[in-house]
Amino acid sequence: MHQSTGVFRQVLCLVATVMIAVGLSACVTNHEGGNPPGWRQVIPAANPDVMALVPADIAAKGTISIGTNPPFAPAQFKDPDGKIIGFEMDLARAAAATMGLELKINDLDFSMILPAVSAGTIDFGASGFTDNEERRKTYDFVDFLMAGIQWAAQTGHPVDPDNACGLTVAVQRNTVSDTDDVTGRNEQCIADGKPEIKKLPYDSSDAAATALVLGRADALSADSPTTAWAVERSEGKIMLTGSIFDAAPYGWPVPKDSPLADALAAALQSMINDGTYAEIMHMWGITDGLVEQANINGHPAAQPVG
Fold it and tell me: Where is the signal peptide (predicted)?
């Protein structure tokens, strides 16, 4: 996965020339006008126990940098002023504050975030990354939310993800929906001698959802929070179809064996303990999949915090 709500709304349409060319005015609504009603910025106090775990080079800078790829609402997307907001940005900023640091946000292509982590040009990724075994070969993940894959279809035209041979399915490029879900299903279709799935990959989740709204795709495969967000803002044009499957954690990737993993996990645990974590998630309407303790690569973090 790359990559869950309120009534605030500013729709993001496709480029005007494209809309004119197809003669449609439909647009996807998972790019919002701003933070949800009742939102407030939550900045916890620095925790000395957590600060002691921060790598010396990062502590000396006084800042910690992330790479993210909007729009992937509600985890990260841009408000009308171009500021990147979302629940993952709020969590990362609160974690930085807990470590006694200021957060620096870098807008990167999704495919470039992990290489930037490896190169050391950013400190960690924060873009709805799924923590999986393949990625763990190179990175350690601090897990902060459980999510699954959820499909959507045009309203009134349900789709069974297990019987999708011959259909056109939109995905965000380089997400688990792209690399694992739809690709794996298509391989099975071919093995069974059935029509192939036509996969439509897009650079962003909103573009993939727009393809479904406009009828260019029969279905959308995306992370459950993202699909739910797109459906709620589609003005009834699309609906959830099938059940959530392949639940896995979202995590913040850092280089393999980096001490930053322990520091981030300790910051997250501190936020869980003092209620900051739940407060942020609830402001964004996320109540399912919350973690009760900080994990690294799916296992409890070793460093206790007060």
Answer: 1-26
Give me the average pLDDT of each 10-residue run along the chain (306 residues): 34 29 35 76 96 97 96 89 96 98 96 96 95 94 94 97 98 91 98 98 91 98 88 91 91 97 97 97 85 93 65
The DSSP output letter for 276 is: H
Beta bridge partners of 169: 199, 219
Task: Supply 210's token pair.
Answer: 């727009």
Q: How many CB atoms lie within 10 A of CB 170?
A: 29
CATH tag, 16-24+148-246: 3.40.190.10
Report which residue type is found at 180: D
Closest C-alpha among 264, 191, 179, 253 to residue 223: 179
Q: How large is the angle between the packed helices 276-283 and 87-98, nearest 10 degrees? A: 160
Q: What 3-state class would DSSP assign to 203?
A: coil
CA distance 276 to 91: 9
Nearest of 289, 290, 294, 252 to residue 269 by alpha carbon: 294
Tell me the Cα Rg of the chain. Answer: 19
Structure letter (DSSP) for residue 241: E
Q: What are the tokens at 124?
A: 């960690």
The pTM (predicted TM-score) of the whole model is 0.74
Look at the chain and count its residues: 306
Quote the CATH superfamily of domain 48-146+249-298: Periplasmic binding protein-like II (3.40.190.10)
67/107 Cα distance (integer angstroms): 6
